[in-house]
Amino acid sequence: MSNYTSDLLRLLNERGYIHQITDAEGLDALAAKQIVPGYIGFDATAPSLHIGSLVQIMMLRRLQQTGHKPIVLMGGGTTRIGDPTGRDESRKMLTDATIDENIAGIRTVFERLLTFGDGPTDAVMVNNQDWLGGLGYIEMLQKVGTHFTVNRMLSFDSVRLRLEREQPMTFLEFNYMILQGYDFRYLSQEMGARLQMGGSDQWGNIVNGMELGRRMDGSELFGLTTPLLTTADGAKMGKSAAGAVWLNEAQLPSYDFWQYWRNVDDRDVGRFLRLFTDLDLGEIARLQSLEGSEINHAKTVLANEVTRLVRGDEAATLAERTAAETFAGGGAGADLPTLDVGADGMRIGAVLTALGFTASNGEAKRKLTEGAVRLDGEGVADPAYLVTIAEGAESKLSLGKKKHAIIRR
């Protein structure tokens, strides 16, 4: 179905967010006549989410933009167990204090992209530890466990693939889908949630929650998933050669965040503009149609718009200015990543790895021998080269044409 009457599904469809809907006609009719509270769950395993989660955050933004209520569910309780979906090994256990700190860090991005408050369409953030933490385990199994069959649970990809690879799955992780299903049931009862959204890998978990709500309460609930988000070359969204592309400034400088978007594949520009910006679809079509070197203008617009949404106006402006000074003027922009090498200096390979330009000293050595490294414009090929800087001075280090940093003491 693509002839939607509700602003919500029409917008999600036009911008490429929809992969599967459990009952498209029913959800469309509901969203056309009333405010629909909808939620997405996020685990708190790190102090920041990365851009692999940005499409989900933008879906909550679209929900609010079309007059509905976003519920941000932080998995303070389920983080203690770990979602086995897409994982080959068990997740490390985190302390309560670490989980709480992570949630505080993650909230800062949501506050930029959503309007929080007490109004009917204002966003709220909730933590499933608040209700899961108070459940007696035996009581939980008695009330909820009877609605799940082991046969069905074993059929889910998240479980089946782990078993096929002979990777162990703990009984604790096996319970994750029961707790996630209970979340949907709880939010529907306590906050009127009618819709759960998520990535395509969450389809089974979402359907579980819908069925639980129907069996326990007779609730009519809905699920919607997004397509698996990969780049044009097939890579999973959210990773770069230097590691995860984090949403928070503390985990990744704004210049590096901006550069990720500026350097996307030409084929991804239109799709990313639709998913990750608020630009008008007509303007996106114009930018997507640019060819040759002009597509770089569209990439700069993409980088500016996403950075502005996630990091703020000042971060976007400063990152673009730094790029212009670095590339066009041959200078060293103020927003470049920096590294202090100390009085004793550092080997060039260690410098590259410390900056995240290379993933290992071995990769750094390869880049050096390929002639890709320059210090103040001069090529450096010797992996044993010691980078020393006079006190109070600085040098510009470059790897290829796109990665630059300031080395200081």
What does this structure look like?
- The protein is an alpha/beta fold and 409 residues long.
- The protein folds into three domains: 7-226, 3-Layer(aba) Sandwich (Rossmann fold), CATH 3.40.50; 253-327, Tyrosyl-Transfer RNA Synthetase (Orthogonal Bundle), CATH 1.10.240.10; 338-408, Structural Genomics Hypothetical 15.5 Kd Protein In mrcA-pckA Intergenic Region, Chain A.
- It has helices at 7-14, 24-33, 54-65, 96-113, 129-132, 137-144, 150-155, 157-164, 171-174, 176-191, 203-217, 254-262, 269-276, 281-288, 295-311, 313-327, 348-354, 361-369, and strands at residues 20-21, 37-42, 69-74, 124-127, 195-199, 222-226, 239-240, 243-244, 338-340, 346-347, 373-375, 378-379, 386-387, 394-399, 403-408.
- Helix 3 (54-65) links the parallel strand 2 (37-42) and strand 3 (69-74).
- Helix 17 (348-354) crosses helix 18 (361-369).
Q: The CATH topology of the largest domain is what?
A: Rossmann fold
Number of domains: 3
Q: Could you give the order of strands across the largest sheet?
A: 1-6-5-2-3-4
Find the structural class using helix and strand composition: alpha/beta
Radius of gyration: 24 Å
Low-confidence stretches: none
The CATH class label of the largest domain is Alpha Beta
